[in-house]
Amino acid sequence: MAASITDSRTFHLRYALYFTPPEEDSLTQAAARWLGRDAFSDHQIAHDPVDGLPDGDLQDLLADPRRYGFHATIKAPFELAEGASEAHLLSAFEAFCSRTEAFDIPKVVVGQLGPFFAIIPDRIYPVLQTFAASVVEEFEPFRAPLSEADIARRRPERLSDSQRANLMRWGYHHVMDDFRFHMTLTGPADPGIAPILSDVLNQRFADFVNRPLTVSGLGLFVEESRGAPFTVKSWLPLRGA
Question: Does domain 12-237 have CATH number 3.90.1140.10?
Fold first, then answer.
């Protein structure tokens, strides 16, 4: 029944607060080469084939992360609330970044969240959880309420009690105590190819994992129309970066 719900509202731009390293960072560039797209420039980038994996299968695996761009979701995509403007959002974004300290995630690795591969912390770090919660709270006044269709897309009947509460309160289920930092590298991978992907990704990102990752800034991403690629509207350094 949920799949039959349609959204009658006129689509507006959606914005999102994502962590990504700056445009010139070597991790940003390596991820763009892997995904086949740079979210800063919106340029498509040819990527190297993966031995043992047909190119068509690889394209399917990369389709979603390519559209969103290399990032970790901090505040999920949202339309602007009534009375809010892009100018106000940009001003608040600049103010937040100027007063919020940069910090290090002590260690990140290539790992899996369910069937997805991502760059993730080796464990939960309170400083990261606190930062993510502060972003969610700070920009909540700019978020329009979810439509019934958007709520249905999240399959609330499959969520835990806390995730359902998060979805209704904050517009996204993976926030607060349910937040898990991840920089997505693939879509859902079949178990049969997971070992191949693990080896390839650990090789491709060897220079960036098993060491600290600096949260040096924050990106304001924008989706011009539903299903369009997300691009970086503004990237700003955090204080002290």
Answer: yes
Instruction: State both tokens at 66.
Output: 């390519």
Q: Closest by alpha carbon to 120, among 177, 74, 180? A: 180
Spatial distance between the Cα atoms of 47 and 34, rounded to a whole number of angstroms: 6
176 Rama sector, left if φ>0, alpha if ψ -120 to 50, beta otherwise: left
Angle 57-39-193 (CA atoms, 0-180°, nearest 5)? Answer: 20
CB 67 within 8 A of CB 6: no
Other CB atoms within 10 Å distance of the CB of residue 208:
20
Q: How confident is the model at residue 9 (pLDDT cuts 50, 70, 90)?
A: very low
Helices (H), the chain: 26-35, 55-68, 86-99, 126-138, 148-153, 161-170, 194-204
Q: Which of 134, 14, 150 is nearest to 80 (CA)?
A: 14
**Whole-number mean pLDDT of the chain?**
93
The answer to whether the predicted template modeling score (pTM) of the entire model surpasses 0.90 is: yes
**Domain range list for the chain:** 12-237
Q: Which two tokens stand for residue 55?
A: 């190119």
User: First-to-last CA distance in the chain?
Assistant: 48
Chain centroid, CA 241 distance in Å: 21
